């Protein structure tokens, strides 16, 4: 529910979100992730533990005060950034044609 929205979204409703996480950094020179910024399996584990486990099958209003796509993206960024120093961009797709995108350097302190 979007408590400040004047339309239908103020009522309980649902979405099947898609999240895109983009990393940017040097390729690892050796080890199991050689030639990668980060192994996709390791990235998937962080996303699963920090985002999916916290939000899947829950009311977003219990976690995020005003769960707009933009606020969800900010919340996700704050969850991922400590684990992913190479985090460069995050997109939260609410529908197939509507998304909110955050990029490294964007001001995240506008929403608490």
Q: Compute the average pLDDT.
A: 90
The overall strand count is 3
Q: From N to C, what is the helix and strand string? A: EHHEE
By CATH, the superfamily comes out as: 6-pyruvoyl tetrahydropterin synthase/QueD
| CATH-defined topology | Tetrahydropterin Synthase, Chain A
Q: What is the percentage of strand-forming residues?
A: 15-25%
Overall, the morphology is elongated
Strand order in the sheet with the most strands: 1-2-3
Examine the secondary-structure arrangement and name the CATH architecture.
Answer: 2-Layer Sandwich
Number of domains: 1
Low-confidence stretches: none
Radius of gyration, in Å, reads 15 Å
Q: What top-tier CATH class fits best?
A: Alpha Beta
Structure class: alpha+beta
What is the CA-CA span between the terminal residues?
18 Å
- Report the major sheet: 3 strands, antiparallel
Residue share in helices?
A: 25-40%
């Amino acid at each position: 529910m979007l408590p400040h929205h004047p339309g239908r979204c103020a009522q309980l409703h649902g979405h099947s979100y898609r999240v895109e996480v983009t990393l940017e950094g040097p390729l690892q020179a050796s080890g199991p992730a050689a030639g990668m910024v980060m192994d996709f399996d390791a990235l998937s584990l962080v996303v699963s533990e920090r985002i999916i486990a916290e939000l899947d099958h829950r009311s977003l209003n219990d976690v995020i005060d005003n769960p707009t796509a933009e606020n969800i993206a900010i919340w996700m960024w704050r969850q991922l950034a400590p684990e992913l120093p190479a985090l460069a961009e995050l997109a939260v797709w609410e529908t197939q044609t509507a998304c909110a995108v955050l990029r490294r350097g964007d001001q995240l302190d506008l929403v608490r």
